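>> Question from a student workshop board

For tomorrow's exercise we were told to take the sequence and the ligand below, predict the bound structure, and bring the output to class. My setup keeps failing. Could a helper post the expected result so I can at least see what it should look like? The ligand is magnesium ion.
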Amino acid sequence: MSDYKNFEAEILVESPGRINLIGEHLDYNGGQVLPAAINLKVRLHFRKNGSSKCNCYSKNYDDHFAFDLNQIKISEKEWHNYFLGVVHFIDQAHPNKIGGFDCIVESELPIGSGVSSSAALECGIAKGLDQLFSIGLTDDEIITMSRDAEHHFVGTKCGIMDQFAVVRGKKGNLIRLDCNDQSYKYVPADFNSYAIVLLNTNVSHNLATSEYNLRRQECESGLKSIQAKYPGQKVLAQVPEEIVNEIGPGLASKTFDRIRYVVQENARTIAASEALAKGDLMTFGQNLFESHSGLSQLYEVSCPELDFLVDLAKSFEGVIGSRMMGGGFGGCTINLVQHDQVDAFIAAASQAYSEKFNIQLSPFTVAIGDGVKLVS
Ligand code: ADP
Ligand code: MG
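>> Workshop helper replied:
Here is what the output should look like for this input. Compare the format with yours to find the bug.
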């Protein structure tokens, strides 16, 4: 398998990463989000091998592993579990369709940096197996099985947004997704003379998983307290801010901050997408800056590196909006930058960042692309 250059694949699937313009930490709170698939992707080459064995090779990790279809159990190595989980859930819903296969994965996405290399991988596996074995999975099945693999095999209790964007992404469009009922519509991403620039901090603080799970608990407990007086309130992101302000002061102060952030971010996401529809990019960008303030001060999922880059972006004339993107504690900032200022912005940010933190910044400009697809 490691001689991947001579590997003769039957099919090739490309599966993109995703960005989220605004609506952070809202997917598990039933809120509105505004993601899109990007032009950077993972490529997955598949072939059947006629046995009950599955061989998987990650070019990025130069690592190979094999498993038997009759013996699927969670592995100690995280990346194995994306394969094991997706195979498990497909097999549960469509027994005896999957046979042995070989798969090579090569990704141009930064891994673990908030552009969802994980959803790209798991949705790419699901799409590839669907095509290779003519299973007939619907897009909804690919989304939910990939999410279930991440929950139950990898152990990340992610929302639905990442898989949704990876599967339903459409070139030139954002997806306005309601994570409560999963209704969605495409919103043309008319950024005119602005480019989408991601600045990868190249840090990932190890608080990310524990704090992520804690935020979920804090939000659940905040909603329960609200429901004690207002049982009709089923979805945190949809609770009117007056109710949050009435109940909040009686809660632990951190819980109040968390739920305030959620309802404010939901309102900001709606305002931002309305501004975009009207072509009001300044208001759209302003909402991104405010989203970052909320994430940093109320939701407390930022870190010094992310705050530094957003502050720098605020003072840079060609940038109209900037915020941390993804779970937080590292990963990327997303910036809307005037096209003719992109190089200057990247140069200034890279220099200031390495002077301050002694870490190399990884900047990249992304375009909005299509969702996971069979290429050949
Ligand atoms: P993100 O989704 O933001 O990139 P995650 O921590 O959710 O970050 O997912 C990263 C994990 O996904 C990696 O630790 C690895 O287990 C898996 N992964 C992603 N891309 C690859 C790849 N090309 N090869 C092997 N594993 C990968
Ligand atoms: Mg992920």
